[in-house]
Structures are given as C-alpha cells and as structure tokens.
Design goal:
The protein is of the alpha+beta class. It is built from 4 helices and 5 strands, in the order ααβββαβαβ.
C-alpha cells in the first residue's frame, strides 16, 4: 500500500510539473492574442463613434442646401454654409471621445440622381475636403452601381470621416503586422432634396 502511495505521489508530481511547463510555453501566445483583442476592441469603439459622427453630419446635411454660396462666417453658430455646418456637427458629435487632428479629414459630396444615374456631383469628383488630406473613397461610377434605375429622381449627400487611429497600447508584436496609425474610414449617405434634378419643362 505504501509503495502504491509513493508511486501515485511521484506520478502526480511529474504531471503537475509537465502542466506547468506546457502552460509557460503557451503563455506568450495567450498574451499576444489577448492584447490583440484588447487593441482591436479600442479600435472598434473608435470606429463606431466615427460612424455615429458621419451619420449625424449626413442627417443634418440632408436639410441644408449644398448649392448656397459661402456666407464667409467662420463660426459654427452663425454660418449657414453647407460645407462649414456639416464639419461642425461631425466634430461636436465625436467630442470628447475623438478630436480630429490636422491630418484627419471630413469629405463631403452631393449628388443629383436621375433614373438611377448621377447627373451631377458637387462640388467636384473628389468631394469637398476639410483639411485636404483625403479625397472621396467613392467614384461616381461606384455610386451609380449602388443606385436603383427604377427609383425616382433624388438628391443625396455623402459624408466621409477619415481618422488616424493611433494604437492605445502599440505593442511591438501588433505594430509588426498592423500599421500604426490605422486610417479609419466611416461614411453615411442621406437624401437631400435641394440637389434633386428638376424636370425640364415641356415646350408648349
């Protein structure tokens, strides 16, 4: 009986030592995976905020005329200029979680659509850029591909937000495979009747 107990203790001791070695071998891999998940969680949280900001800007822009001239009032309270109001709404929506830097950008485009085809894009094919660091990620052809030819004539506003996400932890085993900063791009499209094409009056 005593010999059996001694054999059992040696067996258990050997098994626990083996488990410890296996755990130490796999521990670095677990730490890398967990830290990657945490960093991705931070990134996803920022991206969701950017989506909300783009949505708020496009929703506001749906009720403003993009074709009005610049009133040259620089503040967000008194201006009525389409391309100044939307960045104000977006930045206010993102604060305080996200503060856009000089290399981040808000790009705005407006479209007149007839018979499922873009007939005009304002102000130009690249969109209006707040800082000049980005152009629209959507070409007019790509917008056309999204449209339904059977849909009635309409106007649309596209708001895109570009944000350089600097990693919170910036661990070397993550930055070795993922660039830092990561450029996040969020966008929203909303209808805008102000740029809806008007039918050509028929001749008498």
């Amino acid at each position: 009986m005593r010999s059996l107990m001694r054999w059992f203790k040696r067996r258990v001791g050997r098994a626990s030592g083996q488990s410890m070695v296996e755990f130490l071998v796999i521990l670095p891999i677990l730490l890398i995976m967990i830290s990657g998940l945490v960093e991705f969680g931070f990134l996803l949280n920022y991206y969701l905020d950017l989506i909300d900001g783009a949505r708020d800007g496009a929703r506001f822009g749906a009720n403003v005329d993009p074709l009005l001239r610049d009133d040259e009032r620089q503040d967000c309270i008194n201006t009525t200029y389409f391309y100044r109001l939307i960045p104000c709404v977006v930045t206010q929506s993102l604060a305080p979680q996200i503060v856009l830097s000089a290399t981040d950008d808000i790009v705005i485009s407006s479209f007149a659509v007839a018979s499922g085809v873009v007939t005009a894009r304002f102000p130009d094919a690249d969109g209006w850029s707040l800082t000049g660091f980005h152009v629209s990620e959507f070409t007019t052809a790509e917008i056309n591909a999204m449209l339904d030819p059977a849909a009635p004539n309409t106007g649309m506003v596209l708001v895109e937000v570009f944000y350089d996400y600097n990693m919170v932890m910036a661990l070397p085993w993550i930055t070795a495979f993922v660039p830092n900063p990561v450029v996040l791009h969020a966008y929203t499209i909303m209808p805008n009747t102000h740029v809806e094409p008007t039918p050509t009056p028929s001749s008498p």
